[in-house]
Amino acid sequence: MNGKMHQRNFVYKLLWHLVHTVFTIFKCIHDIYLQLECKLIEWRLGNRCEAQILDNLQKATAKLKKMPKHLTILLGTEEPSHNDLAKLVLWSLTAGISFISFYDVQGKLKMNEEELKESVKRILPKTANVIWHNPECSYKNGFSGPKIHVQVLTQKDGHKALVETCKNLSKSNLEISIQAVDEDLRKQYKFPDPDLGIYFGDYFNLCGYPPWQIRLTEFLNIPSHHNLKDYKLINVLRRYNKCEQRVGK
Questions:
Q1: Which residues does UniProt assign to the signal peptide (predicted)?
Q2: Which of 27, 141, 161, 235 sees the fewest Cβ atoms within 10 Å?
Q3: What CA–CA distance (Å, rounded) separates 193 from 168?
């Protein structure tokens, strides 16, 4: 009896090791295939000029049924690459996205915001307008041609907004409620709540992103924003297009 049980356990272990080995080999082959596919796409698209990239982006996004009005970018722990983030602004403008915000928990992008503005200015078509927002000032209407609103946020901006809301509600005669707090925060941010959020890196972490803004945000991943290719943004927009946002239903 014990001999049969020992033999049966040996067979089970052998089968388990066999399945594990097959799965490991399959995963390795799959990972190699994905890497080769990415390299092939990069090789095919690597020699295109900027006009061809924008034309391809416009054609690809024109086929989508829905586009985010506000795209928010979570840098995570990555060092900001101003040239690549500038491309995101231009590509978002081309895709018809009206608002884009960058959230950098480290605050480095905010400290060097002028460099980002210069990087955007170098690649922006003369007919297009980028409208930069910050909590201290507001923009004026009157821009002609395509435009996109841009905002750089840090963790401190979320703290400041809560402090200002507390001050505003304490001075007013309004009853303090969730609705009153929500309305005041919206007035401060001026941007609509983001529809789509892109985070970089292997792990999703909000890193203190203001939670009242992302109740309905769909978060999707791109491994890194360094040396970013347009097809990666297109893939994210296609994935977002397939998402069903139930808005709490």
A1: none
A2: 141
A3: 21
Residue showing tokens 């590509």: 91
Mutual angle of helices 2-45 and 230-242, in 10-degree steps? 120
DSSP state of 34: H
Place of tokens 């295939």: 33
pTM equals 0.72
| The two structure tokens encoding residue 231 | 């097809």
Residue 50 near residue 123 (C-beta atoms within 8 A)? yes
Cβ(205)–Cβ(106) below 8 Å? no
CB atoms within 10 A of CB 149: 19
Residue that wins the pLDDT comparison between 3 and 110:
110
Provide the CA 109 distance to its chain's centre, in angstroms: 15
Question: Interior CA angle at 95 toward 110 and 68, to 5°?
Answer: 70
CATH architecture of residue range(s) 48-242: 3-Layer(aba) Sandwich (3.40)
* Measured distance CA(35)–CA(47) in Å, rounded: 19
Q: Which amino acid is at 40?
A: L
Residue-level pLDDT at 23: 81
pLDDT of 235 over the 80 cut? yes
- Model pLDDT for residues 45-98, shown as the tens digit of each residue: 555 677 888 888 999 999 999 999 999 999 988 899 999 999 999 999 999 999
- 94 Cβ partners below 8 Å, 6+ apart? 54, 57, 58, 61
**Residue 29 confidence (pLDDT):** 84
Tally the residues of the chain: 249
Contact 188, 151 (CB under 8 A): no
